[in-house]
Amino acid sequence: MHMTASPHKVSAAGGAGSGSSSLVDTLIEFAGRRKGFWVFVSLATLFTAWEIAGRVPISFAFPTFLETVSALVEMALDGTLLPAYLITFQPLVIGVAVSAVLGIALGIVMGLSDKAEWLLAPVFIVLQAAPMAALVPLVTFVYGIGLVAKTLAVIMLALPVIVLNSYKAVRHVNPSLVDMCRSFQGNRFQQIFKIIIPDATPVLFAGLRLGIAAGFIGVMLAELLITPTGIGDLITYHRSIANYAHMYAAVASIIAVSTLTLAALQYVELRFLRPEKRRK
Amino acid sequence: MASPMTARVAETTSKPDAIVEVRDICKRYGDLEALRNINLEFERGKLTTLLGPSGCGKTTLLKIIAGLVPSTSGEIRINGKVVTGPGPERAFVFQDFALMPWATVLRNVAFGLELKGVSQAERHRVAKHYIGEVGLNGFEEKYPHELSGGMRQRVGIARAFSVNADVLLLDEPFSAVDEQNRRKFQEDLLQLVEKERKTFLFVTHSIEEAVYVSDRIVLLSPRPGRVSQIIEPNIDRSAAPDVIRRDKGYLDVVEEIWQGLRQYAE
Amino acid sequence: MTLFGMKIPMMASLLFWALLWEIVGRLDMIFLIPPMSSIITTGFDLVATNSWQAASMVTLRSFVLGMALAIGIGVPLGIAMGRFRIVDNIFGLWVNMFVSAPLSALVPVLMILFGLGETTVFVTVFLFAVWIIVLDARAGVMQVPVSLIEMGRSYGASRLAIFTKIILLSALPEILAGIRIGLIRGVKGVVIGQILVSIIGYGELFELYSRSFDMERFWALTIILFAAAMLLSAGVELFEKRIEYYAGAR
C-alpha cells in the first residue's frame, strides 16, 4: 500500500506565520477585534441617535437613551425586574418546551410517513402562514386569564414553525447517507436515530430558534392582551402612570433578553452538536 | 488484433465461478425504460467495470445489484442465492462519499460494524487497521470537512473494507477527485485488488480509467440501457503504471471503446 | 398520498379536517366550535355587512401602507448592506436582532407615540415586515456570482450597468422571497397591531364578537383572514416561480 498522505499537510495550515513580525501580529490582532469593534460602533450609532431624538424631543413620550438606561438600572436594583421575568418565563418556558417536544416529534413523523404528511402538513402550513394572534382572545374564553391561557398563546405561535421546520429537516436529509446506512444493512430504527435525526439536527435547531422567537412574541401578546403580568405588567403599569423611561426600559430589556436567548442557543448548538462547524 | 495484449470480445457464456449473477434485469421509472434485459455474470476475484455514456443506467444497475434500488423485473443472485435487498456480502462505495459530517474518520470507517452491533473496541481495532491500509494514519479523530476530496474517498473505501464483504461495489468513486489524485487512486486500487482478493464492480464514465483498472469491461448503451459489448483488456499488470499507460495494447483498447461510444456523444 | 391507486392532493386533507369540524360542531359538545357549515353561511352574511367592509378597508389601508414602506426602505437598505461593508457592519447587528425580536412588546410604545389609531397599526406592519426583506435583499446581492460581475467588467460595462443589469436582476429571486415572507409577517403584524389597539378594524370586530360570544362570526372572520394570508402568499409564490427559470440556472 502506498496510499500515503501526511497529516502534517492538513494541520500545518493552522500554524502559518510562526515567524512573528510585529506588523503581522498587529494586523491579526486588529482582525480579531474587528467584530467587537463593529458591534461597539453599531450599538453606539443607534444609542446616540436615540439620545439625540429624546433630547429634541420628538415626542413627549420619548425618553432619552440615558433616562431609559437609568430606569432599567433602577428597576433591576429595586427588585421589580427579576420577579417580573420569573413570571414571564413561566408560560414561555413551558410553552416552548411543549412546542419543542411535540413539534419535533410531529415534524419527524410527518417527514417519515407519507400518510402523516398528507394529514397534517396542510394544517400546519396554514397555521404558520396565518395570523394566529387572532385566536388569542378565544383562549382567554376557555382557560380564563391564568397560566394555562398564556402557555397556550405561546404554543399557538411557536408550534407550527417548529413542526414545519422539523418536517422539512427530515425530508431534506441527504439521501446518499440513508442509502449508505441501508447498504450496511442498517434497520429502520438505526436509519432514523443514527442518520436521519443527526443529519436533520441543523434544521431542527433553526426551527427551534424560530419557535422560541415566536414564543417570545406570543408571551408578550398574552401578557399585554389577556391580563397584565410579568414584563407585560411593567409595560402596562408604567405606561398608565406616564412613566415612559421605565416603560421603554422594560420593552428594551425583553427584546435584549430574547436576542441573548437565541444567541445562547446557537452557541450551544455549534459548540456541542456540530463538530463540522467548530473551528479549532 | 493479433497482439496478445489487445482485447478480445468475450463470449457471454456462463462463467464457472460467478459470484454475482444478473438475470433478465429490467428497470422502468414510469414511462422511462432505464434498463432492458440485462444478463451478466461477475467472476470471483476479478474487477469488472460498467462503462457507458451518461443515461445508460450503469449506476442504476450497480444500485440494483447492491439492493438499494428495486428492479422492475429479473433477479440478482449472490453466491447462487437470490437477493432482494442489501446484504453482508456486498459493500458500497458512494460517488459523493456519503460520510457523516458529524462523525470522526474513525467512527465513519467503523460505521458498518457499529450497525451490526460489533463492540466498540473491536470495531475500532478493525477500523484503525483499514485506515492504515488506505494511508490515513493519524487522521482518525479528524472530521470529514477537514479532509480533501481524495482523502474523504479513502475513508469511504476503508469503511467498505471494514465490513469484510466479498463484493465491493464502487459507484464512480473517483469522479469527485482531481486528475492527479485520480491516477494515484487507480494505481492504489489495483494494489488493493491484488492484496484483498475481493470481487470489484466498478462504475465509471472514463474510458482510460476503465481500461487501466479492469479485468473485464461491460459496455452499456443508453436509452434504454443494454449490454452492447463485453471487452477483456488482457493487460499485463506486472508492468509499471507509466509503461502500461503508453502500451500499444492499452491504447488500442481505449480507441476501440471510443469508436464504439462516439455515436452517443452529443 | 395515494389511496386505492389514486393520487390525492395534499391540500385535500383540509377538507377532511373541515368535515371533522362539522361533525364535532353538530354534536354540540363545545360551544366554541359551531358547525363549519353555519360558520360559512355566517361568513357570507358577514361579508355583506357595512361593519366588515369598513373594517376591511381600514385593515387593508394599514397593511398596504406598511408593506409599501417596508419594501421601499427594506430593499434599498438590504442592497446597500450587501454592497457596502460599512453599512453592513453598522446595521447588521440591529437587523439580525429585530428580525427575531418580540415586536409585540413594541406595540404599546407605538401606541403612546402614534396614538390608538391606524398609524400605530401601519407602523406595526412596517416593523414586522421590514427586517426579513432587508436580510433577504442583502443575501441576494451578496451571492451574485463573482464570475458574472467579472464578465460584465471584461465586456466593459459601467458600474451603473453592472449594478442594474447584473446585480439587481441576479438578486431578484431572493428579494422576492424576502417580500413574500415579509407579506406573511405583515399580515401577522396588522392583526397583532389591531388586536392590541383593539378599537379599529378587525381588532375591533374580534373584540366585539368574542365579548358577545358570537362564535360563528368570530370563526368566519378568522377563516377569511387565514384564507387571505394564504392567497397572498400563494400569489407571490406564483410570481416567484415565473422568474425562477433563471434563478434555477444559476
Reconstruct the topology from this structure.
The complex is a heterotrimer of chains A (280), B (266) and C (250).
Chain A: H1 7-11, H2 22-55, H3 65-77, H4 81-112, H5 114-129, H6 136-143, H7 147-171, H8 175-183, H9 188-225, H10 230-240, H11 244-272
Chain B: E1 8-9, E2 18-29, E3 32-43, E4 47-51, H1 58-66, E5 73-78, E6 81-83, E7 90-93, H2 105-109, H3 111-115, H4 120-133, H5 149-162, E8 167-171, H6 179-196, E9 199-204, H7 207-213, E10 216-221, E11 226-232, H8 241-246, H9 248-261
Parallel strand pairs in B: 4-9, 4-10, 7-8, 8-9
Antiparallel strand pairs in B: 1-11, 2-3, 2-5, 5-6, 10-11
Helix pairs in contact in B: 4-5, 7-9
Chain C: E1 2-3, E2 6-7, H1 13-27, H2 36-48, H3 50-83, H4 85-99, H5 107-114, H6 118-142, H7 146-154, H8 159-197, H9 201-211, H10 215-248
Helix pairs in contact in C: 2-10, 3-4, 3-6, 3-8, 3-9, 4-6, 5-6, 6-8, 7-8, 8-9, 8-10, 9-10
Describe what you observe in this structure.
The complex is a heterotrimer of chains A (280), B (266) and C (250). Chain A contains 11 helices and no strands. Chain A is mainly alpha-helical. Chain A folds into 2 domains: 38 residues; 205 residues, MetI-like fold (Orthogonal Bundle). Chain B has 266 residues and is α/β, with parallel strands linked by helices. Chain B contains 9 helices and 11 strands. Chain B starts with 7 loop residues before the first strand and ends in a 5-residue tail after the last helix. Chain C has one domain: MetI-like fold (Orthogonal Bundle). Chains A and C meet through helix 2, helix 5, helix 6, helix 9 and helix 10 of A and helix 1, helix 4, helix 5, helix 8 and helix 9 of C.
